[in-house]
Amino acid sequence: METMNRKQKWASFGRSLLSSLVPVIAAFIIGGIIISLLGENPFTTYWILISKSLFTVKGFAYTLHKAAPLILTGLAIAVTFKANIFNMGVEGQLLIGGFFAGIAGASLTGTSPVVTKVICMAVGMGCGVLFALIPAVLKAYFRVNEMVVTLMLNYAMIKILEFLATGVFRDNGSGYVTTPTIQAGAMFRRLGGSKLTPFFFISLIVFLIMYFVMNRSVLGYEIRAIGLNPVFAEAASMKVRNKIIEIMVISGALSGLAGAGQMMSDQFKYTLTFSGTPGLGWDGMLVSLLGKHDPVGILIAAIFYSALKTGSDKINFYTNVPKEIIAVIQSLIILFLAVQFFDEKTNLFDSLKKKITGRDETTVKEEL
User: What is the pTM for the complete model shown?
Assistant: First the structure.
C-alpha cells in the first residue's frame, strides 16, 4: 500500500511538472521562431538570457532580489485558489501595503533600524489585511462574487493612492508625483556588491511557513477541503465562513508584506509606476499558476520568471534581438496557462473531443 501511494505521488508530481513545462516550452518555441525571423540564433539568445541571470554571481543575486515579492504574491494567490476562492485583488493589496509602509518609513524617526523595519512591514501587512477583509466579508456573509469585487477594488485603490500621492503625501521637493523617500533605517541594505537584500531571506522564511501551513497543518487540510467541496466541508463541522475570512486575511497579509518589501528593498518611495507593468500582483498570479499553487512550485516559478525579466536587459548588449521578445514570451506563457486553467475548470477539451469523436471513455471501454 505504501509503495502504491508513493507511486501515485510520483505520478501526480510528474503530471504537474509536465503541465507546467508545456506552456513554457511552447512559448519558447514560438519565441525562437520569431528570433529566427529576426536573423538571430534563438539558442544563442536563450543562452545569454539564462546564463546572465542565473550563472553569474551578480546576475543570480539580482534575480533572487526580483523574485522576493513574486514569491509572496504567488503564495498569496495560491492560498486562496486552493480553497477555490479567487482573490484577484493581490495587486491592490500590495499597492496599499507598499504605500503606507513607505509613509511609515518616511515618518519614523528616533527608532532603531530593526524596530523601524518591523513597524514598516507590520503596517504593510495590516493594510493588506484590511483591504482583503472587504471582499472576504462580502463573500462569506453575502455570497458576493469575490472575483468581481477584488478586480474592481484594484482599480479603485490605484486611483485612491494616486490621489494621496499627488496631494496629502506628495514630496513637494520632487519634480514628479512621488511620496517622500523612506528613512535610511527603514531601507534593506544591499549585501556586498550585489542588489540582493535581506528581504529575500524574509520571503524564504515566509515560504517555509506557508509550506508547512498548506501541506502539514489542519488549516491546509481545511483549505483543500473547502476547495474541493464547501458543502461537505460545512457538513464536516468546518466553519466555512470563518475560514474564508481567515484565508483572505492570510492572502492580504502576504500581499501587503510583498508591497512593504518592494518599498524597503527596491523603490524606497511610492511613484505611479511603483509595482511595474504588469504589476507584481498580476505577475504573482502567473507564478502561482505556473507553480500549480504549490509552495515549492511557486518558489521555482518565481525565480524562473524573475530570471526572464533580469536576463532580458542583457539581450540587447549581446544580440540584435530587442528585449521586448521576453514580454512576448511571457505573454504566450500567460495565454497557454490561461487556456490550461480554463480547461481544468470546464473540461473544455474533453467535451470537444467527445463531440468530434462521438464517443466518451465509457463507450471506448465497453467496445474493448
Answer: 0.92
